[in-house]
């Protein structure tokens, strides 16, 4: 199509939907309406895990940077979170190519609507538009090019953050607290279930998002090579805050309890692969994080000295050695007796 024809279409204000305009004039450019994959065997690149978490003043979206093709890592630097407009965003999971195309087309769809109508589409309307685009991708999804994004944003009318998940047919479902999509979504949701609490601050929600993905993604990255080697040892670092309640440390404690629970679950799941999983829980260690700790608090411990980073490092080293081959699913305290269950 020539440039002049495109200019006339952009100035056609008869329809506020850019996707409908594209489907009418050049349907081959719409994700899901172009040529379908042939019967020839191929392995599409898939984005792995994205999540969204509501907090007091809005919504946070996060994702890993990895993409896979079958059992191989196809990329470690893929973008998965896309800004749709000033108040909303899309996190992609599924077939990475079509998902990124859809996210970018969705951006254009919202810009076109604002240009034609002179106002922003409501958050509910945005969620519905994305649902329609996913439904249009159904023929490609039936060929294996599944797109299952998360959509989240701030609803100006309601004054709150909202998040939506979808199925491959375009079915739209609003989640009240959190959601995750992709190959690691089950474990991420399990972690979020333990970590999420009502009325979290932005900083607390950031910590929860990192804890829900960081520990899991670290294990996810290393497990394939350990399986190929026929054995392995994973040590997750938690804290004594993951063993008992600590006043004023709600989000921190919740995240550390989540690491502990994920460790025990992974130990059960990976034992058949001869992969051991344990968690180490340091107490008061002489690092910048303990700058505000008073000497009096240290002196009342059974071992009345500061813990050193090397104390933690030596325990981690021990758990990596073959002499620890019968230890898995354990909560190891390195705390000078600060906590004794």
Structure description:
With 341 residues, the chain is of the alpha+beta class. Helix content is 39%, strand content 21%. It has 10 helices and 15 strands. It has helices at 3-10, 18-25, 96-117, 123-136, 138-141, 185-195, 202-229, 250-270, 295-299, 309-320; strands at 46-47, 50-55, 58-63, 67-69, 72-75, 81-85, 88-91, 94-95, 150-155, 160-166, 172-175, 178-181, 232-237, 275-282, 331-334. The strands form 4 sheets. It has a 5-stranded antiparallel sheet. Helix 6 (185-195) packs across helix 7, helix 6 packs antiparallel against helix 8 (250-270) and helix 7 packs parallel to helix 8. It is elongated and about 75 Å long.
Keywords:
341 residues, alpha+beta, five-stranded antiparallel beta sheet, 10 helices
Topology:
Layout: H1 3-10, H2 18-25, E1 46-47, E2 50-55, E3 58-63, E4 67-69, E5 72-75, E6 81-85, E7 88-91, E8 94-95, H3 96-117, H4 123-136, H5 138-141, E9 150-155, E10 160-166, E11 172-175, E12 178-181, H6 185-195, H7 202-229, E13 232-237, H8 250-270, E14 275-282, H9 295-299, H10 309-320, E15 331-334
Parallel strand pairs: 13-14, 14-15
Antiparallel strand pairs: 1-4, 1-8, 2-3, 2-12, 4-5, 6-7, 7-9, 9-10, 10-11
Helix pairs in contact: 3-4, 6-7, 6-8, 7-8
């Amino acid at each position: 199509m020539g440039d002049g024809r495109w200019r006339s279409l952009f100035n056609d204000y008869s329809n506020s939907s850019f996707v409908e305009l594209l489907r009418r004039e050049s349907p081959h450019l719409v994700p899901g309406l172009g040529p379908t994959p042939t019967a020839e065997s191929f392995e599409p690149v898939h984005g792995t895990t994205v999540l969204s978490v509501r907090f007091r003043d809005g919504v946070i979206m996060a994702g890993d940077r990895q993409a896979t093709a079958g059992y191989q890592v196809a990329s470690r630097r893929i973008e998965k979170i896309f800004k749709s407009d000033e108040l909303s965003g899309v996190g992609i999971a599924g077939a990475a190519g079509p998902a990124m195309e859809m996210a970018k087309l969705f951006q254009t769809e919202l810009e076109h609507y604002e240009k034609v109508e002179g106002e922003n589409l409501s958050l509910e309307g945005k969620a519905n538009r994305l649902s329609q685009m996913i439904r249009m991708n159904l023929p490609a999804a039936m060929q294996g090019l599944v797109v299952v994004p998360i959509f989240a944003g701030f609803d100006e009318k309601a004054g709150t953050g909202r998040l939506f998940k979808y199925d491959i047919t375009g079915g739209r479902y609003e989640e009240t607290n959190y959601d995750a999509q992709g190959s690691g979504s089950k474990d991420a949701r399990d972690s979020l279930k333990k970590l999420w609490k009502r009325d979290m601050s932005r900083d607390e929600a950031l910590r929860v998002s990192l804890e829900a993905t960081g520990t899991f993604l670290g294990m996810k990255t290393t497990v394939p090579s350990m399986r190929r080697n026929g054995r392995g040892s994973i040590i997750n670092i938690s804290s004594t805050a993951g063993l008992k309640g600590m006043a004023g440390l709600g989000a921190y404690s919740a995240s550390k309890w989540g690491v502990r629970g994920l460790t025990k679950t992974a130990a059960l799941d990976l034992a058949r692969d001869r992969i051991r999983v344990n968690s180490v829980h340091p107490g008061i260690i002489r690092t910048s994080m303990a700058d505000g700790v008073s000497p009096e608090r240290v002196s009342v411990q059974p071992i009345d000295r500061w813990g050193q980073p090397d104390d933690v490092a030596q325990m981690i080293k021990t758990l990596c050695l073959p002499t620890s081959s019968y230890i898995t699913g354990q909560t190891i305290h390195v705390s000078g007796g600060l906590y004794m269950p």
